[in-house]
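Q: Convert this sequence to structure tokens.
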Amino acid sequence: MFKRLSYKQAEISLAFIAALSCLIVYFNTVCPTVTFIDSGELATVCYKLGIAHPTGYPLFTLVGYLFSHLPLGLRVIYQLNLLAAIFCSAGLFIFFRLLVLLLNEASIKSKTRTTENPELTERSVFTLFLPAFAGTLLLGFSETFWSQALSIEVYSLHIFLLTLVLFCFVKAIKREQENRSNNSELFISENWILFAYVLGLMFTNHLSTIFLAPAMLVAYFATCGFSKISWKRIFAMGVPFLLGLSVYLYLPFRADNQPILNWGNPVDINNFFRHLTGKVYRVWFLDSSESVIKQFKLFFETLPAEFAYVASVVALFGCWKLFSESIRIFIYTTLLFMGCIIFASFYDIHDIETYFLLAYLTVGIWVAFGVRFFIEFTEKITMRRIIAIISLVMIFMTGYINYEKVDASKLTLVEEYSKDMFNSLEENGILLSFQWDYFVSA
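A:
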């Protein structure tokens, strides 16, 4: 099949197969109704064009509104849960392409580098596409990633935007390196413009976007230097960035119309900035050194189980492969990983796992390089096919182990509990409750 395809066609086809495979599994495990934490609130905000809790999530609200009003004949909450699955699967499509890009760039000093030739080669299949396929599916079936595809939450859109921002950034850096090798320096390319715009959009969905800063700043200045043109480019990127960020204007304009759910009423400048910056949640930020240590330990204690143990070991070999093959990408991914863990550990909340998504995504990158580490041990086609089969077994094992942990297809507890609570009230009764996670939001 693949011999008839060009390099680019094979890349797109395999990215689509990986994303579609996960989407089918997600659809079969998606929650049919409201679930814990913010599910009910976010569904209401999307369907009624309201204002969600800080930071408001305007982009998520607008996209959710459009999708929830598609005439699919489904319950609104179920339709929005399916949207989460679509976002995560679309993120995996981009992630596959990001992996191919990184795997190819990391091989620049070795004989394994494969350019995007019109013809597909056996080498590109085994050293690029197979590792990228394995890394993508292992990320897709990791516990926290998978769970975000099963019910409405802002993190599903965050996943899609996160992979897209990383892909645009790596493409822009690659273009910059090519220009420098040709002794030409372009002031600003379409890659930088697209990156800045998507980054602005990403900030309108979740402020944890800031976790990207250490890695991207280091990579940018290491590539472009501290020249005058580098600083001018940053200021020029401010225009598309602010254009993306302008989605936040939804908050005051919509609040002025007093929607049915209008959290914080961000109608004036004070309320708007209080809402946008999440001021109400600062009590949990840098609460104590003990809480930082607790969250930091929690990540490393739960990390092996996220990828069903075996893939975590493969990721260690991937780190070594990157260190020996491309110290530049090794530093970049390490900064992504550590920047996420350190920043997230400052936040003392019980559902902290979603704040580690960037770190889990980085582990997926390392897994891909780990698979290539084993493939490049041998040139024999038979051994490489065996490694490919082992990779598929590892993917299946991860999916099998995590299936019972995340399957939400029969999760109706929250809806039933909420209905029972209401049925216990007399007519015109008032119920005061602090049970946000499994009643008030629902």
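DSSP finds 18 helices and no strands in the chain.
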